[in-house]
């Protein structure tokens, strides 16, 4: 197995994973979506709500606000020493107290006051509700760690996908160097090499549409996917840095494999 990072930032990461099967690549993708933990508002106690937003809708909107997460500081409630009752190691409290006085106003995520300055919304400009004059909202919300398979609010990625690495083969005995395949490519990923034959200059943006193959009248080009190499693109919601999501997903996958080996070994011994 080999990993080559193409680009990386807190917002997104693109890398090439090679020497693995489709099943392995898809397992990694699914874990990034459903089993990498992050913080999200899980419980809301509404004390006063005179806004036009129903209590249930208000709570749902709050739960979908991405929160910055430090996995080293917090534990899932079910694994916390407090037994899931709620403490500073597994829970963060938010207070929302907003009132529109003589004019309408919009309630934003920045109006949430966190008990932990490190766990805050990734953006202050996420709209929650619009209040008319004299309307107000007063509530407490509790954020906890969770994973995406329990609810979409705990998904740390907004995009997580992969595609095959393309492989192009040019039969130089048949190729007449007409250049029609290059003109036919909708993404412009082909050009000519030093000998005048077509080559794949930008395989990252190739969509394997095979327009180049169809344009070649002498059948000199073959374009096929490499089913052992994959181009991954992961985009974070902002709760965790994108590279951290990949790292944690790999750790979860490794742990699952270790547990499976132990279970199989125990079964054989029994």
Question: What's the layout of helices and strands?
Answer:
Blueprint: E1 2-8, E2 12-18, H1 22-34, E3 38-49, H2 55-63, E4 92-99, E5 105-108, E6 113-114, E7 127-131, E8 136-146, E9 157-170, H3 180-184, E10 190-192, E11 198-200, H4 211-215, E12 221-236, H5 242-269
Antiparallel strand pairs: 1-2, 2-12, 3-8, 4-6, 4-8, 5-7, 9-12, 10-11
Describe this protein's structure.
The protein has 270 residues and is of the alpha+beta class. The protein folds into 2 domains: 2-34 and 158-233, 2-Layer Sandwich (Gyrase A, domain 2), CATH 3.30.1360; 38-154, DNA-directed RNA polymerase, insert domain (RNA Polymerase Alpha Subunit, Chain A, domain 2, Beta Complex). The protein is 22% helix and 34% strand. The chain contains 5 helices and 12 strands. The strands form 4 sheets. It has a 4-stranded antiparallel sheet with strand order 1-2-12-9. A 4-stranded antiparallel sheet has the order 3-8-4-6, covered by helices on one side. Strand 10 and strand 11 (198-200) form a beta hairpin. The longest helix has 28 residues, at 242-269. The protein is flat, with a radius of gyration of 25 Å. The mean pLDDT is 93.
């Amino acid at each position: 197995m080999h990993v080559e990072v193409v680009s990386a930032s807190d917002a997104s990461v693109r890398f090439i994973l090679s020497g693995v099967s489709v099943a392995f690549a898809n397992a990694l993708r699914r874990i990034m979506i459903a089993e990498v933990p992050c913080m999200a508002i899980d419980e809301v106690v509404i004390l006063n709500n005179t806004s036009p937003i129903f209590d249930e809708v208000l709570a749902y909107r709050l739960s979908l606000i991405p929160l910055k997460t430090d996995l080293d500081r917090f534990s899932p409630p079910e694994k916390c020493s407090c037994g899931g009752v709620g403490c500073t190691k597994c829970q963060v409290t938010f207070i929302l107290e907003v009132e529109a006085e003589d004019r309408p106003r919009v309630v934003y995520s920045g109006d949430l006051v966190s008990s932990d300055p490190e766990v805050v919304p990734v953006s202050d400009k996420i709209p929650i509700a619009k209040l008319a004059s004299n309307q107000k909202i007063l509530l407490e919300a509790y954020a906890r760690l969770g994973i995406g398979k329990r609810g979409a609010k705990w998904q740390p990625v907004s995009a997580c996908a992969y595609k095959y690495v393309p492989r192009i083969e040019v039969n130089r005995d048949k190729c007449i160097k007409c250049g029609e395949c290059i003109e036919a490519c909708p993404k412009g990923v082909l050009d000519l090499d030093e000998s005048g034959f077509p080559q794949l200059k930008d395989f990252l943006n190739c969509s394997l549409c095979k327009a180049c193959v169809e344009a070649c009248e002498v059948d000199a080009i073959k374009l096929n996917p490499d089913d052992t190499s994959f181009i991954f693109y992961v985009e974070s919601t902002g709760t965790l840095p994108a590279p951290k999501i990949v790292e944690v997903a790999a750790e979860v996958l490794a742990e699952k494999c270790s547990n499976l080996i132990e279970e199989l070994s125990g079964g054989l011994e029994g």
